[in-house]
Write a structure and sequence with these properties.
Largest interface: A-B, 21 and 25 residues
Helix content of chain A: 55-70%
Shape of chain A: elongated
Number of strands of chain B: 11
Distance between the termini of chain A: 99 Å
CATH superfamily of chain B: RNA polymerase II/Efflux pump adaptor protein, barrel-sandwich hybrid domain
Number of domains of chain A: 4
Oligomer: heterodimer
Order of helices and strands of chain B: EEEEEHEEEEEHHEHH
CATH architecture of the largest domain in chain A: Up-down Bundle
Radius of gyration of chain B: 14 Å
Helix content of chain B: 10-25%
Shape of chain B: globular
Chain lengths: 686, 155
């Protein structure tokens, strides 16, 4: 039964109910944004989710769910950060459970329905402490008290760590915003007030020490405030009411505060991303927005923890929090809700100014799409795909940089974004005397097509890669062909520029050419072409095998079609982003390099999925060439610190960037593509 | 001499289109010496790499006779005439920056034997008045669209 002041007794539960109602309204608003996401419908998502769950090992499913609570990546990144997050998440769930179980068994609340009990549960101590007596107090109640205060203490410790890192150590890349302050005040405030209210209740009802000390936090506070000698019965309802208002505000704020909302969305995004990777969905003009439903969950799941900034090659030089993944995702979260939310028409929303829009577009394009942030993101957000969707949005909104239009016009005219006469695609081959053109040109049918790629074909800085590949294939006695002017851009620069649909005609032409030549394999030296073919061409050419030349060379070596005379020097391998993180090809280049006699192979400190981007990806060069050069310069410093003689890479664009930076810095490190290294070390076949 | 702001274009040369900015100097016996004009090098930025077709290679008007890579440009050096490449400036191959520092002198790229020279140069820009008008229009367009790699050099 409730006490003698029914109004005050139910006040906390009532305000909490109001807070919950506001939460539900916010939830509807947020779900209305989610509903507008493109891609699969809700029924299909649920069907697929079950399909995934039943197709995977149960240990993996459990692992994904557990990881959403313990945040392994966060611990790996920063112990304090991991501790703060885990303390808050686990303790929050724990305290909710404890209070509800406790409330369900309390005689004081026995006349409340199960639904109503939900609103009384957080304040169970309010009812319990004023009626508890040594005669009825048992060990279960003692456990509830210890768990309640224990979890509460952990949450306060977590909040304390967040405050320490934010204000004392100043470790965050992102500046504090109103949302962040509010989240900390509400989270910390509710638990602090809860403890103070329990302490006042202990004093107001003279709860015996041997019982009260089980609420060790509240009891401790009661000892501190007791000397004030106030008339405590006058205060306990007031403090509990204040605590109730705090909890109601906290709950009601959750859907409207990005920091708090992520508590719900981040675990969902983490579990989804741990179990399966969503293929990028290219938006269509008729779509309401260019984001998939999962991407919208990811956007809401980002808490701007700043780990992406710690690993971002662009941020290292710009220090612009608005262009790094966490910053740009956060801005989008706000924009999307303002634009597509259920309540957006009710709010006096001022659309961004033209200058603001242009600045935002620049921030969206200030990214190499290297994907390292995806590897370290605690929520496992597919940042690369998300950034491409943002660029698709910029194109739809007509705020994309002018360079995007220039690239598209060039592609329409010359089938490559460099506006290079496509008829001269094989100009680089005119310098080769020792490979007869008949061995690779004008073939009607072939087993292997060597897809050279635009950059390697047209850039005088790296056409030596194409020359080396050609010689290597010829020396190995392979039946191969080059497509010459029939090779069109694979579409990569247009895809990453955000031209969701305006690249597919390039793919269709290349598919038609490859089918006509009845090729069984297509070999690439460009990691970006390879990435595009692997992800966007395979379903159109199901019987064709796409191989990066590092994989192809590995086979040539295994089949003894290439032998080595040997080479000297300390050699390292730099993982290109689109090949490594993008396609998971890490080992073939390493295996081949290690096969060369006389070479001392060394691993770079940041390798495989943590390798440092050269700066040349994601069309960044089209919008900010100076930044690209700075990024490449930093990478060269990494090579110098490792004291290597030669750095081998497996992407023309990487070689270009590194080579330019070496030139600018006057570094003694030499950069070679895989094909060039192989050719230099290979024995000539007679 | 046509001049606008920091770009100079000698009036005795011929110039090949707004996209490419190639200068062509007609020499004795249907020979044409080509290079990138001052406007082109300003748009491209500091040239780091140059590659041109070898001696004996065919030059086809409007098609690439070589490639350059500069600070903000990778692309073809298009031929202003049809013909055969007679000479390649090896000095500029090993020191591409000459294109920036001495566009019309040591920065020349190739010498072409152009049998149908008069026909080929018909649509090229030539003469002080025509070049001046063209230069001004192009300069304003590049400036407005932010296409120059290098800011204006004040004298």
């Amino acid at each position: 039964m409730l006490g003698e002041y029914p109004f005050f007794d139910s006040f906390c539960a009532a305000v909490f109910m109001v807070g919950t109602f506001v939460f539900i309204l916010g939830l509807i608003n947020n779900l209305s944004v989610l509903r507008k996401g493109n891609g699969r419908g809700l029924k299909q998502i649920i069907k697929e989710a079950f399909g995934i769950l039943f197709s995977l090992k149960i240990t993996r499913v459990i692992g994904a769910i557990v990881d959403s609570f313990i945040h392994r990546r966060l611990f790996k990144e920063n112990l304090l950060r991991g501790l703060a997050m885990v303390s808050i998440i686990i303790s929050y769930i724990g305290i909710i459970l404890v209070n509800h179980i406790k409330a369900a068994g309390m005689p004081e609340l026995s006349n409340i329905s199960h639904f109503g009990l939900f609103f009384y549960a957080p304040f169970s101590d309010f009812y319990f402490l004023r009626t508890v007596s040594p005669a009825t107090f048992n060990s279960t109640q003692s456990l509830y008290a210890l768990l309640n205060d224990g979890f509460g203490l952990f949450i306060l410790c977590g909040v304390g760590i967040l405050i320490y890192r934010r204000f004392i150590k100043r470790e965050y890349a992102f500046r504090m915003k109103k949302d962040d302050v509010l989240a900390i005040i509400l989270l910390g405030g509710w638990f602090t007030l809860h403890f103070v209210a329990a302490a006042v209740t202990i004093l107001a009802f003279n709860v015996p020490d041997k019982i009260a000390h089980h609420w060790f936090m509240a009891y401790g506070i009661s000892r501190v405030i007791a000397p004030l000698g106030l008339h405590w019965p006058d205060f306990y309802i007031m403090v509990w009411s204040l605590a109730g208002i705090f909890l109601a505000t906290l709950v009601g704020s959750i859907p409207f505060n990005r920091k708090l909302w992520h508590i719900i969305t981040a675990p969902i995004a983490m579990v989804l991303n741990s179990l399966s990777e969503e293929r990028h969905i290219f938006s269509k003009l008729e779509d309401e927005m260019p984001f998939s439903k999962r991407q919208l969950v990811e956007i809401d799941g980002c808490v701007k923890c700043g780990i992406c900034a710690d690993h971002c090659v662009a941020y290292e030089h710009t220090h612009d929090e608005h262009s790094v993944s966490g910053g740009v995702i956060s801005s989008y979260g706000v924009r999307l809700r303002q634009k597509y939310g259920f309540f957006s028409s009710l709010i006096d929303y001022e659309p961004p100014t033209k200058d603001g829009q242009e600045l935002f577009a620049t921030q969206i394009y200030t990214c190499t799409l290297c994907g390292r942030c995806k590897e370290v993101c605690p929520v496992k957000i597919n940042t690369r795909s998300l950034r491409v969707s943002m660029r698709e949005d910029a194109v739809r909104e007509k705020i994309a940089p002018n360079a995007v239009n220039i690239a598209l016009e060039a592609a329409k005219k010359e089938h490559n974004v460099l506006n290079y006469p496509n008829a001269d695609r094989l100009m680089w081959a005119e310098f080769i005397d020792d490979v007869p053109p008949a061995s690779y040109l004008n073939k009607k049918k072939t087993d292997v097509i060597y897809f050279v790629g635009c950059m390697t074909s047209f850039s005088p800085a790296i056409s030596s890669i194409a020359e080396a590949n050609l010689k290597l294939l010829y020396q190995a006695g392979e039946d191969f062909a080059l497509l010459g002017e029939d090779e069109w851009c694979c579409g990569f620069p247009l895809i990453v520029a955000g031209l969701a649909q305006e690249w597919q005609w390039l793919r269709d032409k290349n598919v038609e050419t490859i089918k006509k030549m009845q090729a069984k394999q297509v070999v690439f030296n460009c990691a970006s072409c390879y990435h595009t073919f692997k992800h966007e061409y395979q379903e159109h050419l199901p019987d064709v095998e796409f191989l990066h030349n590092s994989e192809y060379i590995q086979r040539l070596v295994a089949n003894k079609k290439v032998g080595f005379k040997g080479m000297k020097g300390k050699v390292a391998y730099h993982d290109p982003c689109d090949l490594g993180r993008g396609c998971g090809v890490y080992e073939p280049p390493r295996r081949v390099i290690k096969e060369i006699p006389g070479i001392e192979y060394v691993e770079l400190p940041l390798n495989r999925k943590y390798s440092t981007c050269c700066g040349g990806g994601g069309d960044l060069e089209m919008v900010n060439a100076d930044l690209v050069n700075k990024i490449a310069g930093t990478l060269v410093e990494e090579f110098e610190q490792t004291r290597v003689d030669i750095v081998t890479t497996a992407c023309g664009q990487c070689k270009r960037m590194i080579q330019n930076a070496i030139k600018v810095k006057g570094s003694k490190v030499k950069v070679m593509d895989m094909a060039e290294l192989m050719l230099a070390a290979a024995m000539e076949r007679k | 001499m046509a001049k606008y702001k920091d770009v100079e274009m000698p009036a005795d040369l011929y110039y090949y289109n707004s996209d490419n900015h190639i200068w062509a100097k007609v020499e004795e016996g249907n020979k044409v010496r080509c290079g990138i004009d001052q406007f082109g090098q300003k748009a491209a930025g500091t040239v780091a790499y140059v590659k041109v077709k070898p001696v004996g290679g065919q030059a086809i008007k409007g098609r690439a006779l070589g490639s350059i890579e500069a600070g903000k440009y990778i692309g073809p050096v298009k031929s202003p005439v049809n013909g055969t490449i007679l000479e390649v400036n090896q000095e500029v191959i090993s020191n591409p920056n000459l294109i920036n520092t001495d566009s019309y002198g040591k920065g020349w790229l190739v010498l072409i034997d152009a049998p149908e020279l008069q026909e080929d140069i018909k649509d090229l820009k030539h003469g002080e008045e025509e070049v001046q008008k063209w230069l001004e229009a192009d300069y304003k367009k590049y400036e407005n669209e932010g296409l120059f790699a290098e800011a204006e050099k004040k004298e």
